[in-house]
Design a protein that fits this description.
- A five-stranded parallel beta sheet has the order 2-1-3-4-5, sandwiched between helices.
- The protein is of the alpha/beta class.
- The chain folds into three domains: 139 residues, Methylthiotransferase, N-terminal domain (Rossmann fold), CATH 3.40.50; 229 residues, pyruvate-formate lyase- activating enzyme, CATH 3.80.30.20; 57 residues, Nucleic acid-binding proteins (OB fold (Dihydrolipoamide Acetyltransferase, E2P), Beta Barrel).
- The chain has 16 helices and 18 strands.
- The longest helix is centred in the C-terminal third of the chain and has 24 residues.
- Bound molecules: iron/sulfur cluster (SF4).
- Iron/sulfur cluster binds next to helix 9.
- The site of iron/sulfur cluster (SF4) has 10 residues, from helix 9.
- This is Ribosomal protein uS12 methylthiotransferase RimO.
Length: 448
Amino acid sequence: MQLSQRMATAKSVSFITMGCAKNEVDTSRMRSHLLKAGYSVSEDPEAADAVIVNTCSFIQAATEESIEAILEVADFDSVRSGRAHLVVSGCMPARYGDELASEITEAGAFVPCSKEDDIVAVMDGLFGLDRAELGYLDAASGVVLDPAPVSSYVKISDGCNRFCSFCSIPYIRGRYRSFEYGEIEAQVDDLVRRGSREIVLIAQDTGRWGDDFEEPRTLAQLVSDLADRFPDIWLRLMYIQPEGVTDELIEAIASHDNVCDYFDIPFQHVNPRLLKLMRRKGSIGEFDRLVQRIRARIPDAALRTTFIAGFPGETEEEFEELLDYVSECDLDYIGVFPYSREEGTHAFELPGQIDEDEKHDRAQRLRELADAVCSARISSRVGSRRRVLVCGEEEDGQVFGRAMCQAPDVDGVTYLDEGNPGDVVEALIEETLLYEMEGSVSPCNDAQ
Ligand code: SF4
């Protein structure tokens, strides 16, 4: 029997992915394992033989959304009739363990983050398939994988050692571990071959990459090596903690044309007392010096941060200190989140928990101010010429892409008068609206 015949399991699996880009990457890895093992992947969960809900439980709201998705799948005719299996993977099984199995009895299996690479064995078990009989497709057998999106995420490490007092990630994802350069390069290579033109490198703590190797390496070395290896591909870094923004990294970004001049650095607050309670470092002075250090080398760099409003014990004065900072800051994008009280974290036990309405009210005030400050900054880009990676068309045919200053999913897009997906065009920015830009494609040599 030929391998391709032995491989055919005739079973289809569909994914529903909740949460952030890191979960998208995990889904994509499970998907790839299953395809190589002969499963097909269906875009229609109600028609599939199994549905994997890859959950997020970073904060309470995300857990609730994941539970809703699980219950919705549990209610599919296919699942209720026993024709299809429901599988729950990702952060929820990692965070709640056995407790989850007694709560969600409809699920046939639970696959925590640390076991996602065993997904084929789990699915084979559910379907009663014998892998020794079926075999796997290896690279040489020419499996045709789907085209990859114009922009793809690649995870460079997992876990986190920082234990910020509000965050459940170290308990869910475990200790920090960097992935080997070869593994990352192979993933980038695969995505590029399948059509990706931008690779976004992500992790919980990107700046720490390589410091846990026997022979330590740095994020600057990783990004330089990848930039040289893939000169026609945009590279972008997300989630660099302030301590990770070294001069070496700034230089690596500045000196490579294909690395986006973009820094995503979560500050979370500016008041030193609250930052200490968050088990983080920093102050207005330190953050200002960090921004100046970046701008001294890359004046037009785009800077993004995130802030938490309503952390336990945050006084009105401390919150106003944050508002004052935002009103004067030199940042392009600011994400705002109301504090979420997560069981099992240190901050859960802190005195001075703030009323839900008050937290949301502070977050809204901060968001409105951030929108006003950042959109004014973005409007100053009118008249500049920028390289834009064409991403696709809206339903009405409007072409859109993203400039180097716009990260996928969070910063808005640039609307264009023409362009083909995957091409990099040079556009004159003619208008902005809040976070969106509009430009016309025009040849120019000094586009940023
Ligand atoms: S650095 Fe990020 S992932 Fe790590 S504990 Fe802090 S908030 Fe959580």
